């Protein structure tokens, strides 16, 4: 945390804020890379153990999660926030054994070239 002194100019404070935001953005990107690596390791474990990495039931859905997300966003042209998108995907009947399905949806949205995030509304839309 940066110790902000009261005699700093507005420009100095803005520089500090920009630097902090850059660090936060870097950490977000690093977190996503680590989550992606973790997902690959879990998939490899599942592949080698003949099932789901957690030992639970692996659901077989007709469509991939990415396809379902794209279908949901095609029907919601104004976009959806992450929680809304997760709820809408679940409403289609898509099943997952993930303990944190919202994070799985986020990972799919983040890596997709067909989906973008509207910075003003914070909603995910088709690119």
Please characterize this protein's 3D structure:
The protein has helices spanning 10-49, 65-75, 82-91, 101-111, and strands at 115-117, 124-126. By secondary structure, the chain is mainly alpha-helical. Strands 1-2 form a two-stranded antiparallel ribbon. Helices cover 57% and strands 5% of the residues.
Task: List the topology elements.
Layout: H1 10-49, H2 65-75, H3 82-91, H4 101-111, E1 115-117, E2 124-126
Antiparallel strand pairs: 1-2
Helix pairs in contact: 3-4
Residues in β-strands, percent: under 5%
Number of helical segments with 4 or more residues: 4
Largest sheet: number of strands, sense, barrel closure = 2 strands, antiparallel
Our Rg estimate from Cα atoms comes to 19 Å
> Averaged pLDDT, please?
85
Label the structural class: mainly alpha
SSE succession: HHHHEE
Question: Quick summary of this structure?
Answer:
The chain is mostly helical and 127 residues long. It is built from 4 helices and 2 strands, in the order H-H-H-H-E-E.
Features:
127 residues; 5% strand; single chain; flat; mainly alpha; 2 strands
